[in-house]
């Protein structure tokens, strides 16, 4: 089964062709980083307009990359939510048009489900496993019991981890995207230089909170205006505080549910310090940690194709009245 997948939940326009939920025939992506860099974050109206310009060239690019045509496609999967409604609608309308014109089954995919299943494009991870989505808009924990079965364990109460990275980077004048800028600068800093707070919330809580660490960075800089060298220590100390919480929570979840495997996905999963720390902590506790390759951590259509394949295989179908969902919780609590 070959799935044409479309992703447009935020500011990246993606199209992919995925065979049997495992093999990437094509994964075409158009980034909008240059569009939004001057604003230090995504501007929804600009993102929607750029998706309109990019969607058809990206789909054509995916088909060309796979040396394929729509006549060889067996189903269409598209991100339905969560995300920016204007951005989502561009991808959804394109997917509806193709499905209708070619009489193909259509399925809307939860963006978070796509992130969690991206790992299967590179590794065969046995179920169950603990999955974490850490990105600019989400920081959530799940018990993955099957390809379409997820139980929500915890989520952020305020800022997501990636959002905190972007906001701190903007405050420090490091540019956008913030995660890569902070990670790069942190390599030359001391991660123990500044004792920024770690918000673990209640004992053994699997929820997250990153607004406090962001405020702590601002307050520290106001009280102690940093030199050029001092900014590296701030970046390293901030990154270490966020990583400490992410690693602790996912290890706690694995121990609580007696699961020996964890998968971390989303843009923050590209962070080298997080990968290093979780791999080490997992080894100390007998827990195997999995990370998709960095190109599969950012928003992309290949992950939507994996999820779409398993949803269609399970008999899921959506009609042409399918709408975009700005909020769409994944799994049962």
Q: What does it look like?
A:
The protein has eleven helices and ten strands. With 333 residues, the protein is of the alpha/beta class. It folds into two domains: 2-116 and 298-313, ATPase, nucleotide binding domain (Nucleotidyltransferase, domain 5, 2-Layer Sandwich); 125-291, ATPase, nucleotide binding domain (Nucleotidyltransferase, domain 5, 2-Layer Sandwich). Strand 1 (2-7) and strand 2 form a beta hairpin.
Strand order in space, largest sheet: 3-2-1-4-5
Number of extended strands: 10
Overall pLDDT score: 95
Report Rg: 20 Å
Low-confidence stretches: none
Return the CATH class of the largest domain.
Alpha Beta
- For the record, the CATH architecture of the largest domain stands as 2-Layer Sandwich
Oligomer: single chain
Query: What can be said about the biggest beta sheet?
Result: 5 strands, mixed
Number of domains: 2
- CATH fold node name of the largest domain: Nucleotidyltransferase, domain 5
Amount of helix: 40-55%
In N-to-C order, the SSE pattern is EEEHHEHEHEEEHHHHEHEHH
Number of alpha- plus pi-helical segments: 11
Strand content: 15-25%
